[in-house]
Amino acid sequence: MRKLQVPLFLLATGLLGACAQIPAPGPNSTALAQTRASQADQAAQMAQERLAAVATQRRAAERHFCSSWKASLDLVRRDAIGCVHATPEQQGACWDAVANWAGAKSEYYAALQRLFAGHPYAEPAQAAGSFFQQTQTWAQNCRGNIQACLQEADQSSMQAQKAAVNQFCAGHGGPPS
């Protein structure tokens, strides 16, 4: 029993000693607390302003989503058709350009998906990003074999992603592509 009392005594002394180390409030404590409160208020205000800016940015992106999607589809179609009709010497560079552009569009729609998180446009943005990621891979494959490329143009996964975005846009005032 005595062995237990000694460690308990040391523990209690150590805890009380730690309490004794806390300095007494100084004359500037009130001023410091007021400064910290002011800083916290400023941080909260900045957070509110950032949220408002993000909401404004999201609404603007929502307004332009379907028209941007349609324009992107039109461009990738036009460029792909141009690559098919290019001379054999130009086709490689042409398909590389289409693949690079589609990759950039995929990243753009991925960024929109993050901006739209928790909102109705998140899923179509994800589908659009997936479509352009698949388009990038397709264009890279077209570089070497135009016949295989033409057969792969109707990939069911690409078409499903495109149909999902088109269906969303048809219900949100955007023309289907």
Task: Describe what you observe in this structure.
The protein has a domain at 65-177. 84% of the residues lie in helices and 0% in strands. It has helices spanning 2-20, 29-85, 88-115, 122-142, 146-152, 156-171. The chain is elongated, with a radius of gyration of 30 Å. The termini are far apart. Mean pLDDT is 82; it is low at 8-12.
Range of strand content: under 5%
| General form | elongated
Distance between the termini: 85 Å
List segments where confidence is low: pLDDT < 50 over at least 5 consecutive residues: 8-12
Structural class by sheet pairing and helices: mainly alpha
Question: If helices are DSSP runs of H or I spanning 4 or more residues, what is the number of helices?
Answer: 6
Please report the total strand number as a whole number: 0
The biggest beta sheet reads: none
Mean pLDDT rating: 82
Protein name: Lipoprotein
Signal peptide: 1-20
Keywords: Signal
